[in-house]
C-alpha cells in the first residue's frame, strides 16, 4: 500500500493530485513556515480505494489515521477526546479542482457531553464551549447525514426570540446547554441513533462522509458539466482547531491580495469578530470590512498584510486566503488563487507584469479567453437581473451580449419598427437568408429551433448582435404573432430582454452596464498577438464587419461567403431566371446581369480589406434556396419573368430536397452549372483589375471551392476556372496572382487530402459541415436532443462549439498529415465556427494549422486562445528538450 | 529504353500487360507451335511513350519496327513492299482488356499501285489482288483517317448494281480496277492527300493511328465506365497476311469451343468462303454454320476441331477463335476466352469440372456473380425488346427482373386493381412506408426520385420485385395521375414494361423468358457456399422474405427491421397516441398495446428462422414518419385519439426536421424515450419465452442499437435494456441468451470502435448511412447529380452500389481494426446494401468481416462473390508463402 496520509510538513503545492488543492496549499504554507494549525491530509488515492472497496475504510488506513492523530497530539501537546488538554479538530474535503456539491467542512470534532465541560473549564468560557458543541452537532448532523440544517436553525431562532437576543453570541451558557440538548434530540429523531460520543467514531464517520460525497449527484453532474475525471477522488484534511469564536480578540475572515472586482492592489475582504467560519457564510451577522481589523487588532492586521503579500509573491497570483484569529494569534487556514472578474483579471495580470512579478506569457495564461466577453459586450446589471422575471434560460448562448427591445416576429415588421426608432428583438422559429433585413436592424435575435451554427447564430455572431438560438421552451407562432412559454405568452410589441452570453430571456427591460475600452485588455491582446503563432482571420463579407475585424487586428479574411451576392431583389430575379432557363445561353444571360453587381461587391470588399489576404468561397447553397416554397408567390414570379406559373411550380417541385444539407449544392451544383463559378471568378478578377487601375491596390485572391468530396470535382472545376480566368487576363493584358483551394468539410475529403493537395493550393476546414457529417447531426435539427445529450454526459461538449477530438479531430489531423505529405508548405486554415473557440484553437495550433478564422467579434478571444496554446505548447517543447 | 517490340515467338500468354490480350495470345499460340502467321507486337509501353511524347514515334522505335520487319521478311522469305515475293501485313490493336471504340484492324498493308500487279501475278488472280487493294484503301481511309465507310460502301453498291452482280466476289478484275481508282479518289477528296504509296509510310501511319485511338472519346468513356486505368495503353500487332479471299478453297471465320448460349460441348461458329474478316462483320453475305465447313473442306474442319480442343485444354476455358483458310491451309489469327450467356457460363464451368479440366475453385472464378441475375429473374425476350418503344432508360437498376403491367399512381388504386386481377406497375415520385400495401401487390415499382438505396429500391429488392428508381426523365404528377416523359405521356391504366436489371421502361407489353431452375447454377452455388469463408445472411422481416432467404441458404438474418411493426393502422394509432402523450405513463400505456402485437410479430419471425441467428434492429426512423404531413388528415386523428386538432398541428410542426436523415432518430430517439427500446426488447424476449414453451425452439437474439455515434449512447441504452430484460427473465424464471450490439453507420463510430467494442457484443456496418455521411450525399437527393458524376468520371462507381474504398472503406477498416483490438473475437457483419455487391463483398472478406447480409434474392450472387473473393485471397496467401 502506498502512503495514504501525509502530515502537512510532508507535502507541498505541487502535490495537488494526491493531496487536493486545499491540502497541497496547507502543506506549502506549512513548508514556508507560516502560521498554519498543524494537521494531516488523507490522499485522494485513499478515497478512490475506499469507493472501490465497497465503501470500507481499510484497517491499514485506520491505523495510519490513528498514528497521525498521535503525531498531531504530540505536536500540540494535547489529546483528542482526552478529558484534559483537549485537542479538537476540523475535517475538510479538498479535491484537485474546486467543486461545489461535495461535503465541505466540519469543525469542533472531538467534543462530547464530557469534553465540552473540559473545554469550558480549559478556556474558562462556558458560552464558547457549548457554542462549539451545538455547532458540531448541527454541522455533523447536516453535513455527514444530511439532516436538514433548517431544523437546527429554526430551533436556534426559537431560543433567540424566546430570550430576546439578537446574536448567537448573546446567548448564555445555560441557554446554550438547553439548545445542545434539543439539537441532540433533533439528531436522534432524524438519524434514529444518538449523536456519537466517541471522538474517533466522529472522525471516521466524517472521513467516510467526505469520501462518499465524491459520488453524490451534484458532484457527479458538476464533473460531467466541467469535464472533470470521475476517478480522481477527493482528499480529506484533518487539522487542529483554532477558535475564532473564543472571544472578542478572536475572529475569522477571508481576504484577497488584490480587489477581485477592480483588480486594484489593496487588501480586500471581510471578517467577523468572535465567530467561526460558517457564520460568515450564513449571513446572520454582517461581516466587517477587512480595514476595520486595522483598528480592532492592528498587530493582527499588519501580520495578515505581510503574510498575504508574501503568499501572492510566492504563488505569483492574486490569493484568496481564509484566516482565523484565536486570542490575537493569527492562523492561515487556506490559500488559493482568487476568483476574479474579467476586468480585475486583466488589470491584475498587466499590473503584475509591470511589477516584474510575472512575464507577459504568465499574464496571458492568467486570462481565460471566454471571460473577456463581458469586457467586449454590454452585460445586464447584476442587481436588476436578480429581480427580473425569467422567460426561459434553456436557449443556446448563440451570440454574446445583452439587449432589450420590443418583440417582432417577421423581418418586415422589425424593419418598420426599427425605422420608427424602436429597439427591436426579432423572435422566429428559425431564420433564413430572407430575414437578413430584419436581423440587421434588431438588437437581439431569438429562435426556438436551430443550434449554435444555425443561420441565426452564425449571422448574429458575424454582426456582433446578441442571439439566443434553439430555445425550445418557446413555442413561436409567427402567424398569430405570439410566443407561448411555460409561464405565459409574449405578443408583438411586448418588451423583453435577451442575454446571448448565457442563452436566457426575461420579461421587460433590464438595466445594462456598457462595455468600455479597457486599456489592460488592449495590452493583453497586444501581447497575445505577438505571442500567437497562428494567424487569426475573420469570417466577414460586409464592409461593416470587415472594418470591425480590421479594428480587432484580423490578419485577413478566412471566409467571404458569396450567397448574399445573389439575394438582393434585382439579383434574385436574375437568379430565378437562371434557374428557370432551359438553355445554356439563357442561363448565361441571367448571370451576365448578376456579374455586373458582383464586380461591385468584390470591389467594395477588396477595397476595405486592402492587400490583406481573403478567401472567397464560391456559391454554396442549393438552388431551392433561391425560389419561394410558398405557392402564393409563384404568380408574382411568373409575371416578373414572363413564364407560366406551372413552370415555376414544376421547377420548385423538381428542386425540392429531402435532406438539403446532403443535396445538390456547393461544387456539386457547379459541376452541373460550371457557368456559376466561372461568373463568380470573372467578377472577382474583374473587380481586382479595376481596383488595381483605380487605386493601385494589389489583391491576390484565394478562391475556394466548397464541398469537395472527390479529387475530380476540384480538378475539373479548377481547370474550368483557370482556363477562363487566364484567357480573361490575357485579353485584358493584366496580371493577377490568384490561388484556388478547397474547403475540407466532407469526411471523405480528409481521407483523400493527399490527392486533393495535388490540385488545391490551400485548404480550409469547414468544421460546421464536417461536424454535422462526422456525427450525423443536422445543425438545424440537433437542438431536439443535444441539450439532453449534454445534460446526461453523452456529449461532454457541444461539438458545434468545441471540437470533438475523437471524431472530427482525428479527421482534421488525418487531412493535415496527408495534405502536407503531398504539398509540405500548403496553407491550411479553419473557417468554421470552431475557429473562434479557445479549446478548438488550441487543437488547431498544436496540429500545425496556419490560421483560424472567426466572427469579427471573436477575434480578441481567438488571439488570447492562440497565444495561450502557443505558450503551453512551447513550454512542453522546452521541457522535452 | 526497354524492349518495345517482341516477335511472336518471344512472348507468352502471361505477358498481357505488355503485349495486350491479342498479342499475348498470338505469342502463346506461336509458342505452342500452332499455325499462326508470323509477326511481332509493339508493346503497350511504346504506346504510352508515344502519347506522352507529343504523339511522335521515337527514332529508336522506328528502327526496332524496321528490324522486326526484316526478321519477318526473312521468316516468310518475302519482302514488304517489294515488287517480287510480296509480303503483305495486317495491323491490329490489342490492349490488356478488350475495349470497343479503339481502332481495330487494317488488312493488306503493303499494297500500292505497283505491288497490286505483283500480287495478281504471284497468285495468278487479278480479282483477288484488286479486291485486296480496294479493301486496303477502304479500311485505311476509314480506320486511320475516319473517312466514312459508307462513302466506299455506296460506291461498291453502285458498281454491283451497275454490273448486276450480287456478291463482291462476282466482280471482275476490270470492274475492281475501276473501283480502286474511285476509292483512291474518295480517299483524296476526304484526306486532301493521295493514298500513300510507300508501304512503310502505310505501316507507320497505321501504328500511329492505333496508338492515338487509345485516347479517342469512345475509348475514354468506355474505360471510365469500366473502371479501366487510362495509362495502360494498347499494343499493336503486325502480322504477315494470309488470305481468306484468295479463292473458293479459302475462307475466314469465328469458332467457339463450346456453344456460347447454351454451353453445350460442340463447335459453334460461322465462316465465309472466299472472304476477308470484315466481310463477316459487314453482314452483306450470310455466313455459314461452321458445320458446313466439314462438308466443304473436311481436312480443314478436322484440323480446326483438333486445334480448338487443344486451345481449350491449354487455356482451360471456352475459347473464341478467329481463323483463316488460305488455299486449304488453316491459320489461327486470334484466340481468347469466349463471351457467353450466364446459362452457358454455369454449364461450361460445371461441365469442365466433370471433365476434370478445372477445379471447383476455377469453375467459380469463371462466373461473374452479377451475370447470374438473368438466371434468377425473368428477362424480356431479346427480339421483342428490340422492337419495343423506349420510354426512358435513364433510371437506376434498383431491383432486377422484368415485368409488364398497368400503371397506377397510388397504393390504394394499385391494391384495387390487383384485387380485380390486374397486373400492376406502381409509379410514384418516391415511395414511403405508407405505400407498402401498394408495393406488395405490384409487379414492378418505378420512381422518378431517389437512389439505389431509396425506400422504393430497398423494399423492392427485399421483395424481389423489379424496380427502376430515380428515373428523372419521368415527371410524375400523382394528382392528375399521369407521367410526362420526353416522348409523351403515360396515364393511369396504360400498359408499360419495366426492366429493373438495366433501369429502363417501355411502352406496352413485352414478351418475357421466365427463369427456370438451373441445376448447373445450383451446383455452382453449392460449391460457393462450401468455399466461402464469409457467412451470408439476409435482410428480411416478413415470413415470405425469410422463407425465400432460407431457400437460398441464408445462414441467418443480418437485419430484421422493426419499423413496419409500428405501421399497421391499429398500431399507428397507438404510436400517434405515444407521440401526442404528455406524460411518461400515457406513453407507456400506448406502448403496451403495440407490445402485444409485436410479441406476435417476433414469434412469427423466430418461428420461421428457427435457431439460426437473427439481428433485430431496434426502431430507427424519426417520429415524424408516424404522423401525416397533410393537414387534411389531422381531423381524423384528432377524432380517433380524442385530442384537439391544434395539438396535432402543433406536434407535427414540432417534429418537423429540415434534414431528417441527420435528425432525432435511432438511438437518439431512444435516449429521449428509452421506453421505446425497452418495449421492443420486452416483445423480443417474451416472444422467445413463448416459442420455447410452445415449440421448444431456442432463440438467441442479437439486439442491435442503431445510429450510435458516442460510446455512452450505447452503454446507457444497453444498461437500461439489460436491467429490464434480466428482471423480466428473473420474474419469468426463464433463461434466454441474448447479445446487444450496435450498427456502425456514423463516421465517428468508426473512430471510437475500440470504446464501442467494450460494450457492444457484435457490430454491423450500416453502409447506407455510412456512405451518405462520408460523402455528404442524401440517398434520396443524390439522384440529381450522381448520374452526371458517373458519366464524367468524377465517381468511378455509385458508392451506394459498390463500396468506396478510399473513404467508406478506410472508415470500415479503421473500425474493424480498433474494435478487434478491444474484443478480438467480436462478430462483425455488414447489413447495408453493399452487403450484396460482389466487389464490396470482396473487400469485406479481405478485411476479415464475419458475414455480409443482403436482400434474400441477392444471396446467390453474394455467395458466389464471397467464394471468389476467398479463392483469390487464398491464392494470394499461397503465393506469399
Automatic annotation (TrEMBL), chains A, B:
Cofactors, names only: Mg(2+)
PEP-utilising enzyme mobile domain span: 422-503
Occurrences of domain PEP-utilising enzyme C-terminal (ranges): 517-869
Domain Pyruvate phosphate dikinase AMP/ATP-binding: 17-54, 57-296, 302-355
Keyword annotations: ATP-binding, Kinase, Magnesium, Metal-binding, Nucleotide-binding, Pyruvate, Transferase
Binding site for Mg(2+): 745, 769
Superkingdom of the source species: Bacteria
PROSITE patterns: PEP_ENZYMES_2, PEP_ENZYMES_PHOS_SITE
EC number(s) recorded for this UniProt protein: 2.7.9.1
Active site: 455, 831
Catalytic function, reaction form: pyruvate + phosphate + ATP = phosphoenolpyruvate + AMP + diphosphate + H(+)
Binding-site residues for substrate, renumbered to this chain: 561, 617, 745, 766-769
PANTHER family found in the cross-reference section: PHOSPHOENOLPYRUVATE DIKINASE-RELATED, PYRUVATE, PHOSPHATE DIKINASE 1, CHLOROPLASTIC
Family per similarity comment: Belongs to the PEP-utilizing enzyme family.
Name of the protein in question: Pyruvate, phosphate dikinase
Biological source species: Vagococcus silagei
Gene that specifies this protein: ppdK
